[in-house]
């Protein structure tokens, strides 16, 4: 059978060119794989959810006689199925893990200088993947159609509508008109975007990301420069890397299922179907820093230009995030170099870049803290100091410490006893 297939598909060549490609072994490289595993679980659990979910707000009568919107009632039905609540919870937590792993993966790339030539394009694809994963998560917010979900989604609607000149068109595409509990087209529109168009785009971008990675190959861990200069050091894609990835995937599924079973996500019964009352809500952690900035910006920060209004939602929800995304996209072109980057750089040997990353992380933490402005009764002036000056101070302190400890004599890790398998380049 193998000979028959080999004669037609040239499996020997495929094995030598693709399956024997070397994968460097480094624990931080698994962040990218965890991101992929989370996406796979999202798709698998999403298939189960779509088979039992009705994307409609028509009134239905439940077996116990309640009259409820169909979308909300179908979530109750899913939770009543064997393991239904766990699978829905697994879908929820995998979305969090995918965004967190992708974010940490980008930080690893930044700290190690792996975005440099020739990987600028894959850095941009990675930014697109992270942004798209967050947008995909947002479009799933309203689908349970409970009081919490609708209120939280409305915050995003108002931010989208605040986009100068194109805000109306944008929210019309996403929400099929005005945001309203009685808009019968809103849930079907968000459902189709959430389960079809955005996942297809994510699959295309993930495929492009992997294709570029295979073509350009991984950056090598620093020790490879000393062990085997100019060579690719690692384990073959099959069977070694494939077995490790398979084991990691099973561990991922086991751990996240345990988490999903212990911490059931988003109990819709506690919130109830949409009402005229607006509950106190906060977005998930990956939106909380934007929510915090919105809390800080005074309502009178507003002016009009050429028919467009530039208000607080624009400054906090669009301007600042766009500025950060564009800044991240520009990094490979600001920190450019003429030669190809083959090896990972040690963060300790690049104190300027490392302290910048630490300062940005502190900015996200402080902006997230601002999201609790009302809960903690924090004055606005204090929040501005925390968000603007504490990250700068943190970055400066980190730079001084790194320069003091590593600036005079750059350190490299000792190889001592390392054994690796040289593989194809």
UniProtKB/TrEMBL annotation:
Residues 1-222 form the Cytochrome b/b6 N-terminal region profile domain. It is found in: Membrane. The keyword Signal does not apply. One of its GO terms (molecular function) is metal ion binding. One of its GO terms (cellular component) is membrane. It is a multi-pass membrane protein. GO terms for biological process: respiratory electron transport chain. This is Cytochrome b/b6 domain protein. It comes from Allomeiothermus silvanus (strain ATCC 700542 / DSM 9946 / NBRC 106475 / NCIMB 13440 / VI-R2) (Thermus silvanus).
């Amino acid at each position: 059978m193998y000979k028959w297939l080999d004669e037609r598909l040239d499996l020997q060549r495929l094995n030598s060119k693709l399956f024997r490609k070397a994968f460097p072994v480094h624990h931080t490289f698994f962040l990218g794989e965890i991101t992929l595993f989370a996406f796979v679980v999202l798709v698998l659990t999403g298939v189960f959810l779509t088979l039992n979910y009705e994307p409609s707000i028509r009134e239905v009568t439940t077996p116990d006689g309640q009259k409820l919107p169909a979308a909300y009632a179908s979530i109750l039905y899913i939770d009543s199925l064997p393991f239904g609540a766990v699978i829905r919870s697994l879908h929820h937590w995998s979305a969090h893990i995918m965004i967190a792993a992708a974010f940490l993966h980008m930080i690893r790339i930044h700290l190690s200088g792996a975005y440099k030539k020739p990987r600028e394009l894959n850095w941009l694809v990675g930014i697109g993947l992270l942004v798209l994963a967050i947008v995909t998560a947002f479009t799933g917010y309203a689908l349970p159609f409970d009081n919490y979900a609708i209120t939280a989604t409305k915050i995003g609607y108002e931010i989208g509508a605040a986009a100068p000149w194109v805000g109306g068109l944008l929210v019309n595409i996403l929400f099929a008109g005005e945001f309203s509990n009685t808009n019968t087209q809103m849930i079907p529109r968000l459902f189709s975007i959430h389960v079809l168009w955005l996942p297809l785009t994510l699959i295309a971008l993930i495929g492009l990301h992997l294709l570029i990675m295979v073509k350009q190959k991984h950056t090598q861990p620093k020790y490879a420069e000393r062990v085997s200069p100019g060579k690719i050091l690692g384990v073959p894609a099959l069977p070694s890397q494939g077995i490790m990835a398979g084991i990691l995937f099973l561990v991922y599924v086991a751990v996240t299922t345990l988490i999903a079973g212990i911490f059931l996500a988003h109990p819709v019964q506690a919130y109830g179907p949409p009402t005229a009352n607006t509950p106190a809500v906060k977005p998930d952690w990956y939106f909380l820093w934007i929510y915090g900035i919105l809390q800080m910006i005074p309502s009178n920060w507003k002016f009009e230009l050429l028919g467009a209004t530039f208000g607080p939602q624009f400054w906090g929800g669009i301007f600042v995030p766009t500025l950060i995304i564009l800044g991240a996209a520009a990094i490979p072109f600001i920190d450019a170099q003429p030669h190809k980057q083959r090896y990972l750089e040690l963060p300790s040997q690049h104190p300027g870049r490392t302290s910048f990353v630490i300062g940005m992380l502190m900015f996200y933490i402080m902006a997230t803290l601002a999201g609790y402005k009302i809960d903690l009764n924090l004055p606005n002036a204090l929040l501005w100091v925390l968000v603007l000056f504490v990250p700068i101070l943190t970055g400066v302190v980190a730079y001084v410490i790194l320069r003091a400890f590593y600036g005079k004599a750059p350190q490299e890790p000792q190889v001592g006893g390392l054994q690796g398998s040289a593989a194809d380049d």
